[in-house]
Design a protein that fits this description.
Number of domains: 2
Order of helices and strands: HHEEHH
Strand content: under 5%
Number of strands: 2
Length: 120
Amino acid sequence: MLHSWLAFLIYGFFALAIPASMMVMSFVFATRPDRRTRARTIPFESGVSKGPPDQRSFTISFYLTAMLFIVFDIEIVFLYPLAVILHQLAWFGFVEFFFFIVILAVAYVYIWRKGALEWR
């Protein structure tokens, strides 16, 4: 019985040990309060220090392009399972596959004609 649960127990051990070790290490290697400087208390991310906030705003086309990319990317993900079992579905699968591609192409042409993909 223990043999069937062994993988789950090992996974559970690591799932608890990794966060616990991170917490312990943060206390072990924490900077002493007497050695804290202003430079150490400022958040630091990706090599860019936090300065005054930028006042530039993004245009709506930036967000629209991002959303359209996500939508078309998700649609492409749906094509993979269909392509994997296309030989089992025979002509019905081919017609469905073609119909799906046509819908995507029409949507792409529509947003292209509307100018949603142009940066202004």
